[in-house]
Here is the input.
Amino acid sequence: MAYTFTFPDVGEGIHEGTIIKWKIKEGDIVEADQALVEIETDKAVVEIPSPKAGKILKCVGKEGQIINVGDVLVEIEEKK
Here is the structure.
């Protein structure tokens, strides 16, 4: 079953960010807390960690694209 991970609220009233660099690609196996993507907000560049271990099924968004809190970042097939 796929887990859909959305861009979390990183605090400080941030509502959107720009995808700077993907640290993973579709098909990669990731561990929980592994960095998935760098996102630039109006306050800082933050690395967003994976909430789950598993296989990346889909990366949503391209580098340079603006995303909003709550937008889908990745779909992960969870480890069993």
About this structure: Strands lie at 2-6, 16-22, 29-30, 35-40, 45-49, 54-59, 66-68, 72-78.
